[in-house]
DNA sequence: AAACCTGGCAACCGCTTCGTA
DNA sequence: GTACGAAGCGGTTGCCAGGTT
């Protein structure tokens, strides 16, 4: 049965999102919540495919996203989870607060994979590499761009001359940090209304590693072992309370505002201890 | 200074899964 | 049980910034 295109290809814009488009999408989601993604572009006045809107929101605009490199702990957790789950990035992401599947997937391919190879561990099987996995010209670590993009799965390259800790992430930290600042500035402006009032205090939420959206808006409420405490999970509630959820259009997050208040009260009680 | 190379990330594509009529 | 549409997911690509020659 022929597959329907996800959207009308004609007149649908592709490529990088503009600040204007981001703003429209944010405003729409804040006002209406995440409903039928297919209808979002039309209703939000965007010439984008619904899929594209969903990706942009979940991977970039969501206020509960952490930014910047994964911490050592997060990286270790990703490795552990990958050993158990394989390339099921969404499942892995569900267990890391504020991280997206795309982000984890990219980080895996660009950092962790190489790190494991340098440590002599096959990133696919998580088993030690054999001797016949010696570096060859054109293999990943001698890498060309093309090789990087083809992502060889054979697990070549057991370069024991490098220490395990000597990895590529160090060289990128500075630029990434710079990008974060730029992104946060950009996002800060995006999360302002037309009168430059904050729609949501995104930056403080991120800096505190807190979440703004309730768990229900995140990863389908999967149970999350070995995760941040309830307090961490729900810290966004205090921010919402501080700024007033209604004021910022976040009341859509909660099916029952009384439930929200109750949750807040109980959290406050917990917090006082 | 310019050309080329490399690495990283945002975004797209297409397949799979889920929900519903 | 089946067909279909919508959303989710993972793989892949393209662009761009920074580094190197």
TrEMBL record:
<feature type="compositionally biased region" description="Low complexity">
    <location>
        <begin position="157"/>
        <end position="176"/>
    </location>
</feature>
<protein>
    <submittedName>
        <fullName>Protein ODORANT1-like</fullName>
    </submittedName>
</protein>
<dbReference type="GO" id="GO:0000976">
    <property type="term" value="F:transcription cis-regulatory region binding"/>
</dbReference>
<keyword id="KW-0805">Transcription regulation</keyword>
<keyword id="KW-0804">Transcription</keyword>
<dbReference type="GO" id="GO:0006355">
    <property type="term" value="P:regulation of DNA-templated transcription"/>
</dbReference>
<keyword id="KW-0238">DNA-binding</keyword>
<dbReference type="GO" id="GO:0046394">
    <property type="term" value="P:carboxylic acid biosynthetic process"/>
</dbReference>
<feature type="domain" description="Myb-like">
    <location>
        <begin position="62"/>
        <end position="112"/>
    </location>
</feature>
<dbReference type="InterPro" id="IPR015495">
    <property type="entry name" value="Myb_TF_plants"/>
</dbReference>
<dbReference type="InterPro" id="IPR017930">
    <property type="entry name" value="Myb_dom"/>
</dbReference>
<dbReference type="InterPro" id="IPR001005">
    <property type="entry name" value="SANT/Myb"/>
</dbReference>
<keyword id="KW-0539">Nucleus</keyword>
<feature type="compositionally biased region" description="Basic and acidic residues">
    <location>
        <begin position="124"/>
        <end position="139"/>
    </location>
</feature>
<dbReference type="GO" id="GO:0005634">
    <property type="term" value="C:nucleus"/>
</dbReference>
<dbReference type="InterPro" id="IPR009057">
    <property type="entry name" value="Homeodomain-like_sf"/>
</dbReference>
<dbReference type="Pfam" id="PF00249">
    <property type="entry name" value="Myb_DNA-binding"/>
</dbReference>
<feature type="region of interest" description="Disordered">
    <location>
        <begin position="124"/>
        <end position="176"/>
    </location>
</feature>
<feature type="domain" description="Myb-like">
    <location>
        <begin position="9"/>
        <end position="61"/>
    </location>
</feature>
<feature type="domain" description="HTH myb-type">
    <location>
        <begin position="62"/>
        <end position="116"/>
    </location>
</feature>
<keyword id="KW-0677">Repeat</keyword>
<feature type="domain" description="HTH myb-type">
    <location>
        <begin position="9"/>
        <end position="61"/>
    </location>
</feature>
């Amino acid at each position: 049965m022929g597959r329907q295109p996800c959207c009308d290809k004609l007149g649908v814009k592709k490529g990088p999102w503009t600040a204007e488009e981001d703003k429209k999408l944010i405003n729409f989601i804040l006002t209406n919540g995440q409903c039928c993604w297919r209808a979002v572009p039309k209703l939000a006045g965007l010439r984008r495919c619904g899929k594209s809107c969903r990706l942009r929101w979940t991977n970039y605009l969501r206020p509960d996203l952490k930014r910047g490199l994964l911490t050592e702990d997060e990286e270790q957790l990703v490795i552990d989870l990958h050993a158990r789950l394989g390339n099921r990035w969404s499942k892995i992401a569900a267990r890391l607060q504020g991280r997206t599947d795309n982000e984890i997937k990219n980080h895996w391919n660009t950092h962790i994979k190489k790190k494991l190879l340098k440590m002599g561990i096959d990133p696919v099987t998580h088993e030690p590499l054999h001797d016949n996995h010696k570096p060859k010209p054109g293999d990943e670590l001698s890498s060309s761009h093309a090789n990087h993009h083809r992502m060889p799965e054979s697990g070549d390259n057991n370069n024991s001359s490098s220490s395990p800790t000597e990895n590529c992430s160090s060289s990128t930290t500075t630029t990434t940090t710079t990008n974060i600042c730029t992104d946060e500035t950009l996002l800060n402006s995006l999360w302002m209304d037309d009168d430059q009032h904050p729609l949501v205090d995104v930056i403080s939420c991120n800096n505190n590693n807190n979440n703004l959206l309730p768990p229900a808006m995140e990863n389908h409420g999967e149970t999350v072992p070995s995760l941040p405490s309830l307090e961490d999970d729900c810290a966004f509630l205090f921010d919402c309370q501080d700024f007033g959820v209604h004021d910022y259009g976040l009341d859509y997050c909660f099916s029952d505002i009384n439930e929200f208040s109750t949750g807040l009260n109980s959290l406050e009680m917990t917090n006082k201890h």
